Amino acid sequence: MNEAGPLPQYLVQRYHGWRATAFLENRVWYRRLAEDGQHPRAMVIACCDSRVHVTSIFGADTGEFFIHRNIANLVPPYAPDGQQHGTSAAVEYAVNTLKVAHLVVLGHTNCGGVQGCHAMCSGHAPALEEKTSFVGRWMDILRPGYERVAGLPPERQIRALEHQAVLVSLENLLTFPFVKNAVASGDLSLHGVLHDIAEGTLQQYDNQVDGFVPVV
Amino acid sequence: MNEAGPLPQYLVQRYHGWRATAFLENRVWYRRLAEDGQHPRAMVIACCDSRVHVTSIFGADTGEFFIHRNIANLVPPYAPDGQQHGTSAAVEYAVNTLKVAHLVVLGHTNCGGVQGCHAMCSGHAPALEEKTSFVGRWMDILRPGYERVAGLPPERQIRALEHQAVLVSLENLLTFPFVKNAVASGDLSLHGVLHDIAEGTLQQYDNQVDGFVPVV
Amino acid sequence: MNEAGPLPQYLVQRYHGWRATAFLENRVWYRRLAEDGQHPRAMVIACCDSRVHVTSIFGADTGEFFIHRNIANLVPPYAPDGQQHGTSAAVEYAVNTLKVAHLVVLGHTNCGGVQGCHAMCSGHAPALEEKTSFVGRWMDILRPGYERVAGLPPERQIRALEHQAVLVSLENLLTFPFVKNAVASGDLSLHGVLHDIAEGTLQQYDNQVDGFVPVV
Amino acid sequence: MNEAGPLPQYLVQRYHGWRATAFLENRVWYRRLAEDGQHPRAMVIACCDSRVHVTSIFGADTGEFFIHRNIANLVPPYAPDGQQHGTSAAVEYAVNTLKVAHLVVLGHTNCGGVQGCHAMCSGHAPALEEKTSFVGRWMDILRPGYERVAGLPPERQIRALEHQAVLVSLENLLTFPFVKNAVASGDLSLHGVLHDIAEGTLQQYDNQVDGFVPVV
Fold first, then answer.
1. What SMART domains does this protein's entry cite (chains A, B, C, D) (predicted)?
2. Cβ contacts (< 8 Å) between A139 and chain B: which residues?
3. What is the mean pLDDT of each run of 10 residues along chain A (216 residues)?
4. In the Cβ-directed half-sphere of B201, how many Cα atoms lie within 13 Å?
5. Is C210 annotated as a binding residue?
6. What CATH number corresponds to the domain at position B204?
7. Beta bridge partners of residue A193, listed in sequence order
8. Which chains touch B (3 or more CB pairs under 8 A)?
9. Which of C22, C58, C63 shows the shortest C-beta gap to D51?
10. What pLDDT does residue B26 have?
11. Please, what sign has the CA dihedral across residues A139, A140, A142, A148?
């Protein structure tokens, strides 16, 4: 027995509409997915932010992307300490079990998590520094990124920290032995992307210039 | 400098197609979302599984759902221990900062995480019991659910455990003081849903029968 | 020993460009495709016409579509006579071995094969009626379609015959027992589409109106 | 009236994206192609395999290649018997009507059709030997190629048969009088290419060494 109640009617109505159209038009494919299991070609790590519509941006059909979403699309460093690490579990499952070919870290502009991290690290958000703040402790993962941008002109720090949220995650991914090995053996490729919500554009990390360039 | 490389061209092509259609047709709304920030009406906690297309099932537009996705849509118990808890951070941000009205835990059939948990708890997956298994330690969250279904006929245990993945998460959500208070004050409603991938149907938890019933 | 010579340099140059970009950016996926084999979700039967760019229209990545292309996207009736039937072999392989979920017959406007069939059936192309004309004999498959449009005003017959090239193929597909069974069991869905080359639009067969309607 | 249903929505979405970008940016060219008809400079005979992306490998724009795709990129011998020969019809149309300058037979590694032919000819696939097997009867075209490789060490036979699928087709092409004449008069050049899916490389037949050499 718990507190859960029925779905609001507008969601029920949309679900019936989805089932009568997208599902029925594609039901053969859905049954195949259920019987054969998923074989996604890529894992995407994105923010929970409601403005980041991963499958829409990339025209992905059901079954194409294995998607983990957390605050600020962060990946913590490898820490096999027996504790619960939801992000590390998702990466482990995607790389070792599903053997995805691509792992995309998808950041975005106007990220509340990044803004909170900036406020916390610059001493303007004492509440986030409290031990009991889950958001604060989660954003600690991005502190090394803050250190790299703290010297920039203030007006440039937030955008730079949004880029760092992608770069720090990419760096931490390589601290996982199974990720490092899969990349070294050519079984996995990593990608770092930043989505500009207002402009609808994408930038991606280019390791030749060691920076972000527009996706063209 | 890191290992990340450019996106595959088929994703670049689809992104350009998205920008020229969905984005441009809706750019006023995207601009608004960027300037005013997000105001999602619901948080959805779903599985990373590529076959669970949250926004499609519920016809959600960009900006509607704050979405956290992890292995088996699990929520751990409240543990303000100063460690990194990505799921707890997402729930805290959704409830305390975004003040969402609905929190939906969306489970699904054919869940690899649930099947792994069943194998582990029934002694058939020693590798998942190792301290270094991120998936194994993450699925420990569902062990209390396994205890409840272990006495059922074997052929019914997996489906029952899929239901437990939703119920255990709902129960753990109520161990968070800010969730319990928001529910008590009528500011937040919880919902437990199971999506059948092959049939395209939804079941939801009904607290009057203390079980799952079809969404009609 | 035969007459074959080296590829023209412009094709060699483009191949090197493709390998240095699209291939290398996606090489993990290509290796996976080679090792695991193909698992396309759809078969497309299209015309050989150089103006029909199947993968581009549908943003299909390598590995997504099993594609058979012949003159006028025709499927002959089921004829297990021990002769060589390339189209029937492709359909058999897609449905029985690959078990694709969707089979799309993609016709197009301005089809030279359809125009030739119309000229032949209306008595204006004696050369195509000769036993030795491979194109003529191949277009015999569409003769039943011509009979249905012969009574229309002349200016409407060609477009109607382009539609028939899709419809006759769909009808012939259902004469194959394994296609009929797969459709009946819900393991395969058929789709009939006409692509307008000049307008860049698609029409699809709608069995509720028993005609073609714009894809919107 | 038939069984065909609407396209899955993810394909519809991608089509709209294609039309708003690739098509509209190039609509003058598409209009020209529709009004003036196609004038492709080459015909490509490739396999239906979803992993062979002909236009991508050669950077072909809409209108450049007249493409016939069948199982294992095979061309049967000249047989003007009044039966339906889809491949012969495509070759006849490309050489006599479109007067293409190049005819490329594009084979590939990991070909299921070639593997099936090898199993059948070596007595390991009785089902393919049945009169009613369309794939088996189609692969009979490659039997002469199997005879040439049957004496090789087993581990080399498949790759050798993949080469034969190209060579036998080139040889059969020259049994067509109109092909032989076009080649003799210098109006048509033939090319034999093998695409390695895992490596992304091309080999082409070199008649000076009577074998395949890397395309450099």
1. Pro_CA
2. 89
3. 83 92 88 90 97 92 94 98 97 97 97 98 97 98 98 96 98 98 93 96 94 95
4. 8
5. no
6. 3.40.1050.10
7. A106, A204
8. A, C, D
9. C63
10. 87
11. positive
pLDDT at A25: 84
Q: Which residues are registered as beta bridge partners of A105?
A: A45, A192
Which positions ≥6 away from D163 have C-beta within 8 Å? D107, D194, D212
Amino acid B1: pLDDT: 47
On whether both D170 and D64 belong to a single domain, the answer is yes
Q: Is D63 exposed, middle or buried (0-12, 13-18, 19+ CB in 10 A)?
A: buried
C23/C71 same-domain check? no
> What is the pTM (predicted TM-score) of this model?
0.89
- Going edge to edge, which strands form the sheet with A211-214? A211-214, A201-206, A189-196, A102-108, A42-47, A65-70, B65-70, B42-47, B102-108, B189-196, B201-206, B211-214
Query: Binding site: residue ranges of D?
Result: 47, 49, 108, 111
- What contacts A205, CB < 8 A, 6 or more positions away? A166, A167, A170, A191, A192, A193, A211, A212, B2, B4
Q: D5 with C208: CB under 8 angstroms?
A: no
Residues B7 and B104 in one domain: no
Residue D160: what are its φ and ψ, rounded to 5°? -65, -35
Written as tens digits, the pLDDT of chain B (216 aa) is 467 889 988 899 999 999 999 899 888 889 989 999 999 999 999 999 999 999 999 988 889 999 999 999 999 999 999 999 999 999 999 999 999 999 999 999 999 999 999 999 999 999 999 999 999 999 999 999 999 999 999 999 999 999 999 999 999 999 999 999 999 999 999 999 999 999 999 999 999 999 999 999
Q: Is A25 close to D14, i.e. CB distance below 8 A?
A: no
Task: State whether C25 and C74 are in the same domain.
Answer: no
Per-residue pLDDT tens over the stretch A147-173: 999 999 999 999 999 999 999 999 999
At residue B183's C-alpha, the angle toward residues B179 and B189, to 5°, is 105
- Binding site as annotated, residues of D for Zn(2+): 47, 49, 108, 111
The type of residue at B57 is: I
Q: Is B76 helix (H, G, I), strand (E, B) or coil?
A: coil
D153 vs chain C: nearest CA distance in angstroms? 22
Domains contained in chain D, number: 2
For residues C12 and C70, membership in a common domain is answered with no
Predicted pLDDT at D166: 98
Question: What pLDDT was estimated at residue C25?
Answer: 84
D8 pLDDT exceeds 90?
Answer: no
Give contacts of C181 with chain A, Cβ < 8 Å. none
Confirm if A54 and D8 have CB atoms less than 8 A apart: no
For residues B126 and B94, the answer to whether their CB atoms sit within 8 Å is: no
- Say whether residue A60 is in contact with chain D using an 8 A CB cutoff: yes
Q: Over 70: is that where the pLDDT of C137 sits?
A: yes
Put simply, whether B86 touches D (Cβ < 8 Å) is no
Counting Cβ atoms within 10 Å, is residue A96 exposed (0-12), middle (13-18) or buried (19+)? middle
User: What part of A 113-152 touches B (C-beta under 8 Å)?
Assistant: 113, 131-135, 137-141
Domain check: are A151 and A132 in the same one?
yes
Task: Please give the full DSSP string across D18-80, using - where no structure is assigned.
Answer: HIIIIIHHTHHHHHHHHHH----SEEEEEE--TT--HHHHTTPPTTSEEEEEEGGG--PPP--
Decide: helix, strand or coil at residue C49. Answer: coil
Q: Are residues A18 and A84 in the same domain?
A: no
Band the pLDDT of C26: cuts 50, 70, 90.
confident
Nearest to B93 among A68, A102, A135 (CB): A135
Q: Note down the domain range covering B95.
A: 38-214
Assess whether A99 and A186 both reside in one domain: yes
Choose the mutation target among B18, B50, B56 for the interface with D, i.e. most D CBs under 10 Å.
Answer: B18
